[in-house]
UniProtKB/TrEMBL annotation, chains A, B:
It comes from Streptomyces ureilyticus. Signal peptide: none annotated. Pfam families: polyprenyl_synt (PF00348). Belongs to the FPP/GGPP synthase family. Keywords: Transferase. Gene3D superfamilies: Farnesyl Diphosphate Synthase. This is Polyprenyl synthetase family protein. The lineage of its organism: Bacteria, Bacillati, Actinomycetota, Actinomycetes, Kitasatosporales. It comes from the Bacteria. The keyword Transferase applies. The keyword Transferase applies.
Amino acid sequence: MSTHVASATGSQALLSPRVVRSAVLPVIQQQISVLEPSLARICGYHLGFIDEHGDPSRGGDGKLTRASLMMAVADGVGLRPEDVQSQAAAVELLHNATLLHDDIADTDELRRSRPAAWKVFGASLAIHAGNALQILGLRIVVDDSGPGHKEIASSFTEAIGLVHAGQARELTLQPGSDAGIAAYEQMVKEKASALLECSLGTPAMRAGKPEHVLAALRGAGRHLGIALQISNDVEDIWGDPAVTGKPIRGDIERRNLTFPVLVALSADSPAGDRLSRLWHADSVTAEHLQALADLIDEAGGRHTAQRLSRSHLDSAVEHLGRAGLSPTATAELTTLFDRIVNRAA
Amino acid sequence: MSTHVASATGSQALLSPRVVRSAVLPVIQQQISVLEPSLARICGYHLGFIDEHGDPSRGGDGKLTRASLMMAVADGVGLRPEDVQSQAAAVELLHNATLLHDDIADTDELRRSRPAAWKVFGASLAIHAGNALQILGLRIVVDDSGPGHKEIASSFTEAIGLVHAGQARELTLQPGSDAGIAAYEQMVKEKASALLECSLGTPAMRAGKPEHVLAALRGAGRHLGIALQISNDVEDIWGDPAVTGKPIRGDIERRNLTFPVLVALSADSPAGDRLSRLWHADSVTAEHLQALADLIDEAGGRHTAQRLSRSHLDSAVEHLGRAGLSPTATAELTTLFDRIVNRAA
């Protein structure tokens, strides 16, 4: 991955995952280390620093997507990496807090190809661990005194509140053509876009950039989040578990109303009608899930989802272009946006 | 209750629950009302504004202990109620967030004489609702711009982080004489004292009082929390469910290592030895729980707990005296401290 970015920009790429990791992971590890011991252990496991026995581990520590975005924008507005280093750690702590709680709420048993934290340590401690991660992230921005700190702290707390709203909205989605799809879009703007908007916007606030720059960056984050979530929905049904780190078709096994499903259920076609009947059957056999996947595809769910994801990715790049970042940073971020949405490519 | 306070102070008591309620509840209700609808409903239920069907309700909305303390101290340092009104709402939102999550983590089925929120709405949505309450509380202090706002926001985030640590530590307590009791004390300082310290300290920060005033008030909160928690532990075993709003002996049914139990288990006496043997039996019959309660009493757990709770209440009042608040406020707070710890009296 680092080779790819370096060749795309022709420079010592700021986006190099190695650079981001070496800036952010020590901050996160230091934060975790002062937690109450059982919380430190669960959070360390969830973040991939240790395995379930407490031994050092190098797997499972995510892609630091949000930290990478923040640090690339920082470069594009003339900041040094250390100007947003702790905020980049904070957004990753918050993102991971939401994953830890969401896995409990959704009874998802795998995260990044390893057993989810609640499966290893129990749901009770995992609830407190998710809270601990959330507060670690918020304490960084609340205790910060750098330029724009008040606006940044406010945007972080607003964003994490929106993620909780989106997580709840996702649990209460109902099928039913337009209303269902509208609720889905609202849910995604909260659950997937909010922290991305925050990641892209933070360096602009730190650098004291004018409102239109912040608005352009936040707009990019909003569209990037929608593109990413719809792409994840497609990956759940037709993706490669080795890439997603999750069992295939977990969403349709649980009958989650993801975007391709909502599109297909509202399709006025024989495949859509057949899907509506089979969707409510209890079966979770591989054959039944395959039949559902085929009907979703046939009713247009896959095609419409892929097209809409691409369209939101294009909009994200378009908004990014309006932010007036340095050409190098714009190019790096464009590459990064594409890699985030099309990670399997 | 309001009559009691009014007669104790001989004035239009600031501590009157009615006054505190009318200052704080509208702020909380307004905050809740803008949440995602399913979260608004769960939080509204948990806070006692509505019943499980969504109809208006007047039961189950707690005692606003932390808001009452904050507003009484505010009066004592020369602030108006509106100077800390939103912070008083914030501390109640945070406290309730911890209760909502703790009920899930502990599978407690009753809260304030009503089914716990997770029993009514399911654990998944209740996890997100607890997060939503937590963020509502933190947003109030993060977005505030009044005097001392940065120090106040920092103390709130620190305090809620300590509560999570204490909740986790409680789940991992081990019996075993001194080590067990030391871990218990650490747990209580985090779980019970942190938000009380924050409640008592906030008005001093807002009023720009010197460090020794803040230290005295925080010290009062620390001892008050320990006195309250030990008193709650005693109430669980020998209290009146009509007062506690919880089934009696829930803690010993789940074999939680509360203070009287830790004391009794480490007693070098026949009753202590007998308790150690019976404690690990699976039985949860009323007879068995009664036998455990009698042995805890016989081994000195009840007496030691009551004595220690009283001693910490005395220390809380002593620290309060050093804060140099107005005599009226000091008298009101002394009455309030006593009522908080000895609510059944």
